[in-house]
Every structure is written in structure tokens, then in C-alpha cells.
Amino acid sequence: MNRLTVYEAAHNADYPLFIPFIMAGDPTRSATVDLALQLQEAGAHILELGIPYSDPLADGPVLQRSAKRALQQGMSLKSAMDLIPEMRKRGLTIPVVVFTYYNPVFQMGMESFLETANEKGADGVLVPDLPFEESQDFTALAKDYQLANISLVAPTSTTRVHKIASHAEGFLYCVSSLGVTGTREVFPQEAYDFIHTVKEHSAVPVAVGFGISKPEHVQSLSGICSGVIVGSAIMKLVEKHANELAAGEEKKKEALQEIKTFVSTLISS
């Protein structure tokens, strides 16, 4: 039973999960480790560790720029996963989900990737461009390495929602709208209707992502979903403070504190 399974078993529907996404290597390796620990301290329940990729189809401008900066730092799938034991050594105890597009996995080899993820201390993997219909072998192999293959479900037919939700592990990533990641002003009623549909068919916690950036968003989703996933809003702050995060400890500390304050405000909403 890995950390994600423990969260799934012990989850209280009245206590929403907060799941931040950060890009490995943006702006530096050490800043990524510091940020992970700061997010845990702020109250994060699960960490999504993004692997930078040159053609991130599901990502909006903020995460595209983040991936580009990380790649310029020489970050790769393997070196990104090397950050997990560094985080664990410094006190990270929450589950870590490795978020990567399939091409880096293909290049590394499916089994080699999953074996490495397990060895490095990850608890789950999420591959957004791996279609559900083609994921059975990947999911089975992930189980062999005690990893949950996190499923994504986007607005689609009820039949397909049921099919995906019935096989979900750890938590189910509910995409609030079609399109790419990025902050939004409001969520349309259709998004709430879709979340309700997903919840009806899911036996695991349903976490909503794509567009969450304000306390009002979290408030509007409270009681509707089991958790919220925030990526672009956090990485936008990382981009704003990239120089400070890559600088000396004092400036880095101030930047991390601003990010922590932002996250704490979201969680306490």
C-alpha cells in the first residue's frame, strides 16, 4: 500500500485535497526541492512533479514557458526523478505523482521508467497523452511497481466517464474544461455539471484541475469535488520570482514565502 492508497482509504470528503503541480528544474534543481517542501508546509496533500517536455500539448503558455526554462537547465525525465529522493531526504512525506508526456517514457522504456519512479520514491504516474484505451499494459505494469496510474477524464459521454472512472486509482483527475491548462476567471455551469457526473461514477477521490487560481474558485468547488489541482497559478509566481529563486538564500526565502502565502490563502478559503 503506497502513500496514495493510504490517502484514498483515509480520505474525508469534507476535507478537500490540495494538489499543487510544479515543473522539475524551473528555475533550478535546488529551487524545485525547496518549493516542494514549502508547498508541503503550506498544506499540500499530494505533489504533482511535472517533467519538462518540448511539445506539451495539454499545457497553456505558463507551463510551456516553464518547461522551456527547465529544459534549458538540462532537466530530463531521469534527472527530474532524481529530485524525489532529495525531497524525501529533506523531509517530504506526501505522495508524489510524476506527470509526464508519453514520448519521454517511450524513449526511456516503459518498464525502466516505472521501475525508476518506484525506486526514487514516487507513488503514482500521470501520462496525459496516453489514451485510456491504450493504457491497460501500462497500468498493469505500474501496479507491479506499486505505482498508481492516475487517470484523466475530460468532458465526454457518460459511458466513457464510467469506463475511465471504474478503473481509476489513487485519485481521478477531472479536467474542468476542454483546451489547455491556464488560469480562468470563472467556471461555467457545464463544468460543475460534469464534475457531478464524474463523482457519481468514481470510487476514488475526484480532483479538479485546469484553471483554478483564486480562493473563489476553491470556494465554488468546495463540497463538489474531493480536491483541487493548481499548476499554472503557482508556476506563474515561480516565473515572476525566477531570479530570486535562483539567487542566494535570503532572496529565495522571500520568494518561497510569497508562494507559500498564496497557497495558504487558497487552502484556507
From TrEMBL:
Pathway(s) served: Amino-acid biosynthesis; L-tryptophan biosynthesis; L-tryptophan from chorismate: step 5/5
Gene Ontology MF term list: tryptophan synthase activity
Keywords on record: Amino-acid biosynthesis, Aromatic amino acid biosynthesis, Lyase, Tryptophan biosynthesis
EC number, UniProt record: 4.2.1.20
Top-level taxon in the UniProt lineage: Bacteria
GO cellular component: cytosol
Cited PANTHER family: TRYPTOPHAN SYNTHASE ALPHA CHAIN, CHLOROPLASTIC, TRYPTOPHAN SYNTHASE, ALPHA CHAIN
Subunit structure comment from the entry: Tetramer of two alpha and two beta chains.
Family: Belongs to the TrpA family.
NCBIfam families linked to this entry: trpA
Function per UniProt: The alpha subunit is responsible for the aldol cleavage of indoleglycerol phosphate to indole and glyceraldehyde 3-phosphate.
Protein name: Tryptophan synthase alpha chain
Organism expressing this protein natively: Alteribacillus persepolensis
